[in-house]
Amino acid sequence: xxxxxxxxxxxxxxLHIVAVALPGIIFYxxxxxxxxxxxxxxxxxxxxxxxxxxxxxRFKFSGFGxxxxxxxxxxxxxxxxxxxxxxTYILAGAGICSFLSLISELATGVCFLCLxxxxxxxxxxxxxxxxxxxxxxxxxTLEGGIACFLTCFLISFFIFPELPYFVSSLGVELSxxxxxxxxxxxxxxxxxxxxxxxxxxxxxxxxxxITSLVAMLLV
Length: 219
What we know:
Helix content: over 70%
Distance between the termini: 42 Å
Shape: globular
Oligomer: single chain
Order of helices and strands: HHHHHHEEHHHEEH
């Protein structure tokens, strides 16, 4: 245990980061293989469908549910024993971004950026927040929010300009102003979740898509 940070939470977020393969598929599959953008979207949607089948089976069939809990229970949050897992919501958010990417080459690059930043930034926020977070705000921590912003900013500024095809897909290099706005948008939406009535929407579902739309207006 590191502060309030458990080994299970670390493992959960490391697995969460593996999800960066999703924006990689959306962006690079059409550029490096014979797959089209639509084909890449179908791959993400298939993975989402497969995840939903697993979710249905674990709730519907007690035997499979027990097997799932034995295999992955340590990585699940308490509420995920009663509802969809974060992994399924990430796949759903990636599915939305995959269809937004069909709009244009700019949209493809923007969705690649924002989905990747959200996945890594969210993991950084959770790990830092639970490890050293002291200032609480809306069930989050200020320290986690700062970690999310800094992670998104640094990755956008130092890493993405060096990635193959990224700058050419946007047509221009991102300015510091644009990077700050994109990073702040992700961090802000982490702190202020969207609600539908009494139901709080899972941020994995909508943050990448909303940030992508904001970024498209900026670039």
